[in-house]
Write a structure and sequence with these properties.
about 220 residues; alpha/beta; five-stranded mixed beta sheet; four-stranded mixed beta sheet; 7 helices; about 30% strand
Length: about 220
């Protein structure tokens, strides 16, 4: 599938979508990540690169999970997927952002800028590389409206999924190659084991998150 077709709305077939939703028990968050991973695997993306997903990296006494990681010859991109609907509000310094679903229903979620900063710190420490070569991309569903959010900076970009490839392609045109093909492969191989963790590690990660935000 080419870039034009994707931007025109081409997605996995209805059978692929159904199979994934059945497999995950209808998990909408996981489905958002699936759509983004599908997009990366279906579009001819310029420049030598590798894509990994669901990395459980060591952090403090537990783990932090990166949704999708793009290792590109021009840099490293950490993608945090948010498959939300409704209106989205939040600032850079607010610990919690708001999802508004009509006049009466509001949901809170952890600031994705702060969330990705944690991911990037863990990744930088593990790979022993400077954080400046890592960019944060926060990717929201097309079903939401980004009503009041921070402007993009050198550190992060916030956008909807259907603008992701277009924006990445634009940014990469402005950047210089910093990794050889061999180095990209080496980074991937070093990180690959963190995509294959046991169910116990995944369960412990989920439990830690639940305890952290328990009210």
């Amino acid at each position: 599938m080419g870039l034009f077709k994707f931007l025109m709305g081409e997605e996995p077939s209805i059978f692929e979508k159904a199979a994934f939703l059945i497999k995950t028990g209808g998990d909408r968050g996981a489905y958002g990540e699936y759509l983004t991973k599908y997009m990366f695997g279906s579009i001819d993306f310029n420049g030598y690169h590798k894509v990994l997903s669901n990395l459980y990296l060591p952090h403090r006494n537990g783990t932090t999970e990166i949704d999708i990681l793009l290792i590109h010859e021009k840099g490293i991109y950490v993608l945090e997927s948010k498959n939300y609907s409704g209106w989205i509000f939040g600032s850079e310094k607010q610990v919690q952002w708001t999802q508004s679903l009509g006049k009466t229903k509001k949901e809170r979620f952890y600031n994705p800028i702060m969330q990705n900063r944690t991911h990037i710190r863990a990744l930088s420490k593990l790979l022993e590389i400077d954080k400046t070569v890592i960019r944060s991309y926060i990717v929201f569903s097309e079903r939401c409206e980004l009503k009041k959010i921070p402007e993009d900076t050198e550190e992060y970009t916030i956008l909807k999924r259907n603008k992701l490839i277009e924006e990445l392609a634009r940014e990469l045109k402005t950047r210089s190659v910093i990794y050889t093909h061999e180095q990209v492969d080496q980074l991937k191989e070093k990180l690959l084991p963190f995509t294959k963790v046991t169910q116990d590690v995944k369960d412990a990660h989920i439990e830690t998150i639940k305890n952290k935000w328990k009210t």
